[in-house]
Amino acid sequence: MTTPLVLDRAALERLRRIGGSALVRQMLGLFREGAAQRLAAARAAVVEGDRPALGRAAHALVSSAGNVGAAELLAVARAAEEAARAPDADMRPALARLEESIARLEGPLAAAEQEMAG
Q1: CATH, domain 9-117, list 1.20.120, 1.10.238, 1.25.40, 3.40.1620
Q2: Which residue of 8, 83, 103, 115 has the fewest CB atoms within a 10 Å radius of its CB?
Q3: Sequence-separated (6 or more) residues with CB below 8 Å from residue 117
Q4: Maximum distance among all Cα pairs of the chain, rounded to whole angstroms
Q5: What is the band of 2 on the pLDDT scale with cuts at 50, 70, 90?
Q6: Helix (H) or strand (E) holding 15
Q7: Residue 84 to residue 87: CA distance in whole angstroms
Q8: CA–CA separation, 2 vs 20, rounded Å?
Q9: Helix H or strand E segment including 64
Q10: CA angle 22, 26, 29 (to 5 degrees)
Q11: What tens digit of pLDDT does each residue of 93-116 get?
Q12: Structural domain boundaries of the chain?
């Protein structure tokens, strides 16, 4: 199995061609803000044992990750959605993978933002 890219730069380049560097910066900013909110919601869901809430947070991450080419997070968030639907699954590993994937995005996101600013 192939490991997805942390951040698919080709996806960002497609966005840049559509709307310029300003659009990419805006999308990345919205992604960062939304990812932080969704991760907080996922943490709360796991603490509360709220499977539907984890599923909603993961689904939102799937959508936003796809928009900016965060391929690894997209795959991890899809797996978290599945874990949220499985009545016997421990949700904590899914949350840990979400946290790890989002943390791995920090460097590539910062580099992409810097590149688009110049």
Answers
A1: 1.20.120
A2: 103
A3: 21, 25
A4: 49
A5: low
A6: helix 9-48
A7: 7
A8: 31
A9: helix 51-68
A10: 140
A11: 999 999 999 999 999 999 999 998
A12: 9-117
